[in-house]
Amino acid sequence: MALPSFPAVARHNLNPCMLIASRDELEVMTLLGSCVSVCLWDSRLAFGGMNHYMLPLWNGDGLPTPKYGNVAIEKLIGKMLEFGCRKEQLVAKCFGGANVLGDTSGRMLIGERNISLAQEILATHRIPIVAQDMGGLRGMKILFNTRTGVVLAGRLASSPTHV
Fold first, then answer.
1. Which of 10, 13, 19, 99 is deepest in the core (most CB within 10 A)?
2. DSSP E strands: which ranges in the chain?
3. Which residues make Cβ contacts (< 8 Å) with residue 133, sequence separation at least 6?
C-alpha cells in the first residue's frame, strides 16, 4: 500500500519498541498491528515525537524499555519537555491496537489493552487526543511529520502472518 509522501523531508523508519522526538522536520514511518503509536506535537514550537510500543505495562522485571506503553509514553513526554515544549501545548494522535489475529473470544486483547493504556496515560497528563484510528482487524502504516504534526494513515490490505 502506498501513501503519499511529504516532499523533500528527511525520513526515519521507527521500529517496534522505539521512540523518536525531533526539533528538526522528519517524516517518521512505522507499521502497526496490535502495537500502538502515540504521536505528540507542540504547535507553538512545531516539534514532534512518536513512539511504537508492543505491550501495555512494564512489570518491573528487566529494563524499562519503550517496548512497554507505560514506559514509551512517559519517555516521549519527557523528551518533548526536554526540548522546551510545555505539556499544556501538546496534543496527541494515536494509532494501531488492531486485533490482527481476529480472536473474538471476549477476553481483553493486547491491542485493546494498548489502546486503553494510551488513553489513560494521556488523560492523566491532560494531553488531548485530537485524532485517532485505533482498533479494527487490520494493521496500518502511518507517516508522521514532526514539523507540521500531520499524520497520514492507511490500513493494510491484510495483516502479516506471525511465524
1. 19
2. 10-13, 18-22, 26-32, 36-42, 47-52, 90-96, 129-134, 140-145, 151-155
3. 95, 140, 153
